[in-house]
Design brief:
single chain, alpha/beta, Rossmann fold, 2 domains
Length: 358
């Protein structure tokens, strides 16, 4: 299932009360998409819902259910369980302060087998030893993990635990990745690179362990690259930065990325496009046009939107639709801008594309 489809199912999955387990290759966004559920639940259910993110490989059985502590009860010294540490949410609040939410056990495939048995019961019934999640609100236990063949240290799975949840395989999906990058403010060079090189972004791990490109590692590189933007707003193309890039995404993908960075230095200036959208130089190569589209989408504002629309309308239709979707993904308020509204009304394909943006 694609990440966009998973996003659309988060609320009904939660309402069902069932345990969801997202499985997929490394670095595809499984954790991020579940962590986005709180916002969607708050909007759909009109309540206060939270997220607890727990690293499965770090758990041991006492962590999962709390620790036994002595307490005097009359004449008797009793052993009572403390509350687990993960009753505190990612917002550093106790789970009882919410209407409910999701306890995400991340990297669940790597948990010790004894812990899997404990968490498996919590996923089915919400019970952890003496504790019941239902006593603190409407909480669910969901999980995310890699596949057995992903060289990620997965431990043995048990059939009775698999039978207590439903598993969703996360499919590679370029559009979901590009939309996430656009919403996160990733520089256009990286979005254009991903769009032009999906085989690099979704590659399998190399035969010899080392850095390689995934949606996550490319995003990490994009975040790091902000440390090296020059006075003209461009990224360096020197050997030092290329070596650093290879440390994130591997040598082969870094070489491909640097072709895009070189191309960025040949693009028409944003100011020239805004000043004269009908006459500003228009690149002829498809990869260059795509880079211009993402660059404009990242920089456009209310004052320059009309000029940018007139410029991209000089390109083939598929590029104009990409620009329109990217603009609205970045800022939904552009939908009601007079220039954008008029453009979408005379372009049925664009209107259909933006209505699919959640």
């Amino acid at each position: 299932m694609k990440l966009k489809d998973i996003e659309s199912r988060l609320v009904p999955w939660f309402r069902s009360g069932k345990c969801v387990y997202l499985r997929g290759p490394i670095g595809r966004g499984k954790t991020t998409v579940i962590q986005s559920a709180a916002k969607r639940l708050n909007e759909a259910l009109k309540g206060t819902y939270g997220i607890v993110t727990v690293s499965g490989p770090l758990l041991n059985p006492p962590d999962a259910v709390g620790y036994l502590m002595p307490e005097k009860r009359g004449e008797w010294l009793m052993s009572l369980f403390t509350q687990p540490f993960w009753f505190i949410t990612d917002e550093n609040r106790h789970i009882s302060e919410y209407d409910g939410g999701i306890v995400l056990v991340d990297e669940a495939d790597k948990m010790d087998t004894d812990v899997k048995k404990v968490i498996g019961e919590a996923a089915l019934s919400g019970r952890l030893g003496p504790h019941r999640l239902a006593d603190h609100g409407d909480w669910r236990v969901w999980m995310a993990g890699n596949r057995a063949g992903d060289r990620s240290g997965a431990t043995k799975e048990f059939d009775h635990l698999i039978n207590r949840r439903f598993e969703i395989n996360v499919d590679d999906d370029l559009q979901s990745t590009v939309d996430f990058y656009a919403a996160a403010g990733v520089r256009p060079e990286f979005i254009a690179f991903a769009h032009a090189n999906p085989q690099a972004v979704f590659m399998d791990p190399p035969p010899v362990p080392g850095p390689w490109c995934t949606p996550r590692s490319l995003h990490s590189l994009a975040e790091y690259s902000l440390q090296h933007v020059d006075g003209e707003g461009l990224l360096p193309v020197d050997t030092l930065f290329k070596e650093e890039a290879a440390g994130f995404i591997g040598d082969a993908s870094a070489s491909q990325l640097f072709a895009t960075l070189e191309l960025a230095r040949e693009m028409p200036r944003f100011e020239d496009i805004v000043a004269s959208p009908g006459k500003a130089r228009l690149p002829t190569r498809a990869d260059a046009q795509m880079l211009v589209v993402y660059t404009l989408a990242a920089r456009v504002d209310e004052k320059t939107l009309g000029a940018c629309i007139r410029y991209v309308e000089r390109m083939p239709a598929e590029f104009t639709i990409t620009f329109g979707k990217s603009v609205v993904t970045r800022r939904k308020s552009f939908v009601v801008h007079p220039d954008f509204s008029a453009w979408s009304q005379r372009n049925s394909a664009l209107l259909m594309a933006i209505t699919q943006i959640s």
